[in-house]
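Following up on my earlier thread - several people asked me to post the actual chain instead of describing it. Fair enough. Here it is, all 251 residues.
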Amino acid sequence: MSGHSKWATIKHKKSAADAKRGRLFTKLIKEITIAARMGGGNPDNNPRLRTAIEAAKDANMPSDNIERAIKKGTGELEGVNYEECIYEGYGAGGVAIIVEAATDNKNRTTSELRKIFSKFNGNLGESGCVSWKFSKKGEIIIEGNKITEDELMELALNAGADDVVNEDGMFTVYTSVQDYNKVLEAIKAKGITPVSARIGFIPQNYIKPDSKDAESVLKLIENLEEHDDVQNVSSDLDIDENLLNSMQEQK
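Reply from S.P.:
Thanks for posting it. Predicted structure:
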């Protein structure tokens, strides 16, 4: 099977920096709380909660923090009531962007995200303006030296994956939302820890703007991801590897 994952390289290069962010625990706690509120506090019966707990453990979050977040979601402990919101817009060069957020004040979050879009030559649009360009799927990114392509293909497809993509020494496994946890668990059972794993909006096609616009879009995405209320950012950006390396070296 074949395909193309332009975000695989970007996510890999960003993963180390992401892991160091002080905001990471806050985002994970929000996701655990929402998942527990919507589907109950038992991860065996709540795939979304199970995924959130695994992400928290991968980030070395203490078990006490995880338990408190679950109890706040189920109402056993008093906590903030977060609302899930999806924002859609465009970056420079017509790049489509979807932002998934969790907030206790939607008006504040909307205003702040609009300012971020504007600051980096983008604009926040109406609901539905870009979502038609994406499909919601599971996405699991694995370093190419962890397993051979043939082995991963057999493992992932037997577990229910839709596709396996090999690009720039990275493998990306795509799944349906329903089969995501089953595929992820099969990969982890082989002793493989993914670079990243999520259910998100995957673009059907990619846009490659010029270098100036691509740099603006990357800065826009980075600033969106640094916002406390933002959980995930998805984009149809295709970027030149040399430009990405240059931006990383400037930091």
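Residues 1-5 have pLDDT under 50 and may be disordered. That should answer part of your original question.
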